[in-house]
Amino acid sequence: IGNTVLHILVLQPNKTFACHMYSLILSYDRSKEGPGSLELIPNNEGLSPFKLAGVEGNTVMFQYLMQKRKQNLWSFGPLSTVLYDITEIDSWAEDQSFLELIVSTKKREARQILDLTPVKELVSLKWNMYGRPYFCFLALFYILYMVCFTMCCVYRPLKPRTGNRTSSRDNTVYVQKMLQESYVAYEDELRLVGELITVIGAVVILVLEIPDILRVGAAKYFGQTILGGPFHIIVITYACMILVTMVMRLTSTTGEVVPMSFALVLGWCNVMYFARGFQMLGPFTIMIQKMIFGDLMRFCWLMAVVILGFASAFYIIFQTENPENLGQFYNYPMSLFTTFELFLTIIDGPANYDVDLPFMYSVVYFAFAIIATLLMLNLLIAMMGDTHWRVAHEQDELWRAQVVATTVMLERKLPRCLWPRSGICGREFGLGDRWYLRIEDRVDPNKHKMMRYTGAFKAQDRENYDKGSEKLETNGDTLCKKELSALSLSLSRSTSRTSSHRGWEILRRNT
Question: How confident is the model over 231-242, as pLDDT tens digits?
């Protein structure tokens, strides 16, 4: 019951009352240490009160709990050294990481905890010592891997076509070699080495990604932008395309260009994932993801309807015409592709002035140009501009969340020997087996003096304002509106003059 009450207090809107009641309930807890403590008992979702405060974005309760856990090591004048308990914060030995819970929640208030002590210092320590070097090395390794795969695709086994053409529009001159013909020369053996590296890389990607999907869940793993959800979809699809290409090569099945081209596009697009390691480029990946899966996905439904309708109309108009004079609409798939290009203004409106075109073509194309180019494209630009404005206001916060998510990911993937635990064991200071982060703090005395001076100014302003309000209430029944305005103006001037005088006197005296 006591643990349930603690979880309820974390969710209370009155944070000051919740902190006092939290402390009162813990004062009656008999087992203050060990697994039987009320603070360490998780709820049905596996969250302790401390983790629940982080997930809900309750910064007041989080700071209150951290102040209870900290240990003052020593202080000398303005300098002080504090040990912060990071047992539940550090993701090194946690199955359900506190940092991963914060970046995966949909509440923006939770990401503000990443800027609080000691979370900010812990993330900075992990990222600067281990996260950034490993992430840069991983980015370089992935780019070299993609270069190897690209070269294998460029020099894939082809041979001249021997069959006759069945149509005047048939433009094929090379075809794919059979498996027995693909690995004969020395150059083929070099390509085979690169293909083996590509396939091994695809298998490693699947082995690393599938356990995380099973642990977190597909909805959260692919749906969270900060966790890199869309990029996980891209890299898994890329690995599957590589395996499909391998099967088609081993079975001598024609058409391997389809999965191979998909794999090239997806593999190189995944390079944008590594932009999150740089503060200048990281927020742009968030903008691209939000524009694609927010604005563009909604816009594509409208675009598909417009393209389908006008492409059908163009095909019907040119169905009776000679395709050699205007071949952009000679069949239905080509009409869809041409209308798509016209929609995005990639090509100009096709026309042949040597022949007479149908009159309805001019009418339909006029309506298409007005609806598609002038209306819908400008609507898409306005939607993307609004998304850019919203993301730009929180780009620093989003980049910190990206860094945390990347750090947690690397810490889970890498062996323990390459990523030692951060912090200091409490045994060195007689504090048990809990782990602490040592933070040195400097208290600036000038800052506190300025706070006292500001308080003196504010107190004097409030006092003079109260006196003036009493005077206005006393004479309010006998003065007219004009005299009231004049009195209030003179009162505000005298109040500000008196307040400034008293404030400067305080400054001179303290100096």
Answer: 888 888 999 999
Judged by DSSP in three states, 423 sits in coil
Does residue 416 form part of some domain? no
What does the mean pLDDT of the chain come to?
A: 75
Q: How many domains does the chain have?
A: 3
Rounded-to-integer distance, Cα 3 and Cα 50, Å: 12
Range of the domain at 130: 125-275
pLDDT at 223 over 80: no
Token reading at 495: 């109040």
Q: Which conformational region is residue 172 in: left (phi greater than 0), alpha (psi within -120 to 50 degrees), or beta?
A: beta
Q: How many other CB atoms are found less than 10 A from the CB of residue 184?
A: 11
CATH number at residue 336: 1.10.287
Look up residue 58 and give its two tokens: 């309750």
User: Which pLDDT belongs to residue 444?
Assistant: 59
Regarding whether 139 and 271 lie in a shared domain, the answer is: yes
**DSSP-assigned states of every residue in 256-286:** THHHHHHHHHHHHHGGGGGGGGSTTTHHHHH
Residues 159 and 180 reside in one and the same domain: yes
Find which of 5-19, 76-90, 164-178, 234-248 is predicted with most confidence, using mean pLDDT.
Answer: 234-248
- Is there a domain that residue 469 lies in? no
- pLDDT tier at 372 (50, 70, 90 boundaries)? confident
Domain for residue 454, yes or no? no
**Within a domain: residue 464?**
no
| pLDDT above 90 for 140 | yes
Q: Where are the beta strands (DSSP E) in 15-140?
A: 71-76, 79-85
Distance CA 108, CA 279 (A): 19
Q: Are 165 and 109 found together in one domain? A: no
Cross-strand partners of 435:
425
**DSSP 3-state assignment of 290?**
helix
Tokens standing for 195? 């293909």
Structure tokens belonging to residue 50: 């401390």
User: Two tokens at 453?
Assistant: 């001076």
